Amino acid sequence: MKKQYDRKLFVIFGTVFLLMSALFNWATISTGVFPAGHDLMLIAMTVMCFCNAYLAPQFIQNDERTKRIKERSMFYSYFINLGYMAIFLTLLQFNLLAITAYQTVAILAALTIMTVFITMVVLSKRY
Fold first, then answer.
1. Which of 112, 49, 59 has its CA nearest to residue 84?
2. How do the domains of the chain map onto residue ranges?
3. How confident is the prediction along the chain (127 residues), in pLDDT tens digits per residue?
4. How buried is residue 106: exposed, middle or buried, by Cβ count under 10 Å (0-12/13-18/19+)?
5. What contacts 54, CB < 8 A, 6 or more positions away?
6. Does residue 57 have a cis peptide bond before it, meaning omega lies within 30 degrees of 0?
7. What does the alpha-carbon distance between residue 4 and residue 108 come to, in Å, rounded to a whole number?
8. Rounded Cα gap, residues 23 and 103, in angstroms
9. All residues at 6 or more sequence positions from 60 whose CB lies less than 8 Å from its CB, including other chains
């Protein structure tokens, strides 16, 4: 019973974050300041909630499989995040991307959150 409750709660939160991020992103795109920073974090929270909704029944059992998925996810996410940073450094160095430091950190944080949870979903299907 608790497994279904956790999954439903994550779906509800994910839906709320999805609606909020749609509203915030529409507002920032229409005013011409996308990405503002906070809008991307709402997208990341949406992805995190939906990934947790999928993973909650599997992660309730804290067994060897769950630990392996978490370990591998962090391992792969580390190298993917290094790739993100290399791309951002290149784009910023050659002035191909003109964004503020706040926007850069917000984009990297959102990408990190999404990468970790999406790799957990992919690895849960694999293991």
1. 112
2. 2-126
3. 455 668 999 999 999 999 999 999 999 999 988 888 888 999 999 999 999 999 998 888 888 999 999 999 999 999 999 999 999 999 999 999 888 999 999 999 999 999 999 999 999 998 8
4. buried
5. 121, 124
6. no
7. 32
8. 19
9. 2, 3, 6
C-alpha to C-alpha distances, 75 to 78, 81, 106, nearest whole angstrom: 5, 10, 22
Three-state SS sequence of the chain: CHHHHHHHHHHHHHHHHHHHHHHHHHHHHHHCCCCCCHHHHHHHHHHHHHHHHHHHHHHCCCCHHHHHHHHHHHHHHHHHHHHHHHHHHHHHHCCCCCCCHHHHHHHHHHHHHHHHHHHHHHHHHHC
